[in-house]
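Try it yourself: sequence plus zinc ion, in.
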Amino acid sequence: MQKKAVVLYSGGLDSTTCLAMAADSGFKPYAISFSYGQRHSYELEVAKTNARHMGAAEHLVVDFDLRLMGGSALTADIDVPKQGVGSEIPVTYVPARNTIFLSFALGWAEVLGAFDIFIGVNALDYSGYPDCRPEYIAAFEAMANLATKAGVEGTGGFRIRTPLISMTKAQIIAAGCELGVDYGLTHSCYDPSPEGLSCGQCDSCRLRLKGFAEAGLTDPLPYQSP
Ligand code: ZN
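Structure, out:
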């Protein structure tokens, strides 16, 4: 029987590539997305529309509201920076977000009988988020095996799989294109227009556009005119 894997899927470039990679490495992918009050909720609409098309066997959307806590430009009334990436952890960091996301993914994995969880974190072309680092992922994996019935009873060992962690954005895009990913059906912008057009200026847009340029490819997404 084909092994199941839970894939964190936001509708963005990285997680969509990660979903394709999970399927390509033989897993039956179960996509999980989060409606957490994010400013860029257009991304979630993209995820809902395209999850099956991208190869997900099922798509689960978990709904909670991190705006109750705030503390991030993505969940509070703080401007999304458009001046480029600095050396500090940016205000688009969402407090403990990947721990919250991976915890939901772990719960669903245990219910599904899956032991593999894919997350498209990246430690190279990333925005400086602490919960994208390999040491964080290793710590979560160790915790997952201590925290679950499946882990303790030894029916399997949980693996947090991060196929993108040491790839550049250009390499991710090139690999995704090889796997047939249609990047016109992804979304990256933190601050899109009401119609869903990407801004072209936020950290996420900048990294995406730089990745396409370095891969020698054209981003199929429409952008707002400056
Ligand atoms: Zn943007």
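One thing you can check immediately is this: The chain has seven helices and five strands.
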